[in-house]
Amino acid sequence: MAVMKNEKFTLQFDEAQGGVSGLTTNGDNMEWIKQGYVFAIPRDLRHKEYRDFGFKLVDFSSTERSATAIFEAADMRVKTDYFFNEKGNVVVRNEITDRKDVELFLLQGQIGFNVCFYDDYKDSLTCVTSRCHTHIHCGGEQSWICLLKMGGGKTHLGVRVTKGGLTSYEQFDCYSNDRGYFVVHPELYNLSPDEKYVLEYEIFIHEGKEDFIKQLKELDGFPYAELENNTLFRGESCRVSSNFEIAEVYDKEKSVKFTSRKTKDGYKTTFRTYGLGEHKIELVGKNGKKIFSYINVSLPFNELVEKRVDYIINKQQYHKEGSALDGAFLIYDTEEGKPFFSNVDPDLNGTRERLAMGYIVAVYLQRVKNEKYLVAFKKYINFLLREIFDEVTGEVFSTVRRYSERRRLYNGPVLARVLLEAYYVLKDKQLLKYMIKAINFYYGDGGENFYPNGICMYKMLKVLEDAEMFEERETLKKQFMTHVGNVIKRGTNYPAHEVNYEQTIVSPAVSFIIDAYRITGDETYLKELKPHFELLEAFDGFQPHYKLNSIAIRFWDDYYAGKAMTFGDTMPQHCSSLSSYLYATYGALSGDERLYKKGITGLRNSLCLFFPDGSASCASIFPFRVNGQKGNFFDPFINDQDTVLYLAVDYLWKE
């Protein structure tokens, strides 16, 4: 096995395939390359029967300080050089040439390079000791990859493109607990027979997101820009900070007027965009460099919520006397223009996480009087109590006719939150008694060691106080504090739930501890937050794209909740907003401006799941392709995503 080594890195090569099979930083045991695919080799992604597509390794040579591999396909040749630069960092240089005597044309995604880092979810202990989050930014000349150890620390890896650029990425072999293998696509359209295209990138060590950004900016000629907000409400201006002076701004390839000024750290540029939806912004520097950023322009928040509630009431509520579904808010298929329900697939029924529709209707009715919506909401609450709740035991079922395929601890807290919000609309204390029964059943079924996202301890105690149910409040408070104590005792060795490890296994720990502080005022709870926050923030992207910035990595949700049933990066998906809400809440309580701003950014960016007509999508499948299937689309099912609006109301609603 060939080895390339210096004072910083050790690389092992698969000589039969011409790529890197192992990568470690000296003094650290973390293996960064995921086994199964070989890192850095080219991929011919054109597939057609009886066509000679595919790269073959024709030569490989190496020394202790460098290596060279030559690959050939029917019409392309790639020479890949591996070496250390003057900083001791790893450089991978790919030189692509045309093997034919006529121009070579390549569509996006027809050629790629493996960047297979160790990003999977075996269990929480394995994740926090030997796995990394892979944050990919395919932004032409500004492309980079930030690798963060899931367990935190001071030794992480970064990849920055120094020649050429990237347009997109795709995933292979992505499943429930495995984010799969990544392939990036170069910014290459066509080549003349005598022309060469170079894609070169540098692998370096950094100490975390802030240090990663600092090192990007320090690289001579590397363009870097940050948007104040990637999601704008109609009428807002776009503000950009950059490390280079901007000469031109293009919005959807049209030149726009802008103002720019010099600052201590670079330049501030401001301009206006027109029209709702996605805007691809191109910033061209006076130095000739250019970068791309993506923003979303949304309806003003109040108007967006009103449109969504109207859509739920008029299109998603089912009416059929005598049916078990009478009064339910159902999934909606925007492709076929019809509601949908499955009584055998619990992710597609009218209950469980679909109760988020009840959340947003309730909080809207707390702020706006509408008799039609109120009648519909009462019918909905009657449906829930009739079909999925046992008023004697407090059990919350997974689907109608009071049926569950198994005991599911998430169900109780989700219904309890609906009943909490319904009380503020209907002022019926019986709803709070049912809320308590549901929580008592949850705890009686082992819930004190579970990590659900539905329990909002502070709000549940507050509603009991508002209703002057003081005795019940104290009893519930004791259960909550026992639960918090168990979470603190367990630390970061989180239990597996429906998947082995994910953002929403970490976020409940943060939520419970914040609420314990809000309930007691005891600042010792805040000290317990640090390790959980470090792990939670590592999930979050910071690319200049509204679908990625302050959005947590998730990659299986569409398969379970979507019509397309596609594995792969679902960014955003509604669960990401749970982290954003916690950042904003903690920031508001503690005065931490960075976390507060990050929370608001994440809430805003998640709003791209909602459209101006009131429709929505359960997930955005972000990559260009996943497991060989087309990506880059919003799933047509309206399912689960209303948690985003419900959480954002606390921070974005304008009275």
Instruction: Kindly state the percentage of residues in helix.
Output: 25-40%
Largest sheet: spatial strand order = 5-6-7-8-17-13-12-11
- Helix count? 16
* Number of DSSP E strands: 34
Our Rg estimate from Cα atoms comes to 26 Å
Summarize model confidence as the mean pLDDT.
96
Structural class: alpha+beta
Low-confidence stretches: none
Tertiary shape: globular
State the end-to-end CA separation: 66 Å
Bin the strand percentage.
25-35%
Largest sheet report: 8 strands, antiparallel
Describe, in plain words, how this protein is organized in 3D.
- The chain is an alpha+beta fold and 655 residues long.
- Strands 5-6-7-8-17-13-12-11 form an 8-stranded antiparallel beta sheet. It has a 6-stranded mixed beta sheet with strand order 4-10-15-14-31-32, with no helix packed on it. The chain has a 5-stranded mixed beta sheet with strand order 19-26-25-21-22.
- α4 (356-365) runs parallel beside α16 (643-652) and α5 packs antiparallel against α6.
